[in-house]
Here is the input.
Amino acid sequence: MSEERSAVSEVVRAFWREEEEFRRIRRERADWDFIGRQPPRVRAALEYYVETGDLYVASRIAGVTVGEMNELRKRARIPNVA
Amino acid sequence: MSRRFAISDTCFVIDWSYYRRRECLVELFDVVLVPEQVLSEVEDERSISWISLQLARGSMQLFTPSPSDLREAERLILEVASRPYMRRIDVPEAVCLVVARRIGAVVLTENRGALLAARLLRELRGVAVWRALEVIRESLMRGLIEARSREEVRRAFLEYEVDTSHVFPRRDLEEAVEAVVRCLSERR
Here is the structure.
């Protein structure tokens, strides 16, 4: 039981380490000038995407479909890291 | 032999439709289910025309989740949310996970919350969750994408990165390339 718990802990630790690494990649590659020029909802959505990589919730913040949000992501040069 | 099903969420299928080797997906599976909620989120012409073509050919199938699927998805969302160490999931990927568990399909998603949930939750044990990385790896191993050398194997992954503004985690990419090269050399 404790072995299983320790394996789970390691999976969780590795997952959140990766999250931090992927966030850094998105931050570094993002076109912050483009993001800064967007209307408030889109800007907030792009910033949320940089932080989380979550396209669905970002699209809800921007008030657009996931497809439109993905286009905004590409125009803002934010990679999908997964 | 049973038919091989996959079920796709939005973030996967939108990017996948931009991949120059996208046809391998519908050769890898007999049917790719596309939930109605996913289809309604696809906007751009390239994605929607490719998905429509696959729906017409029968390689993809529009899937309407039942009320019980939606209730079960909601329960799963709350189950994940109750564990602070997990990454939250939302309706699209939760629907894919519960339907995949029920019918034995592979979930196609780039959502990391779904990946973690499938690894950690006992109730999702046995549910396979594939990203584009795994789809390309399997396509290479089965010869649906042709590659004769390590460079050609690597190119198939890098083309996806270029076509979709994607970055594969380097360690996962190296492991996938290694697995494909090993598989190809065993086949020779």
In short: The mean pLDDT of chain A is 95. Residues 2 and 8 of chain A are 10 Å apart (CA to CA).
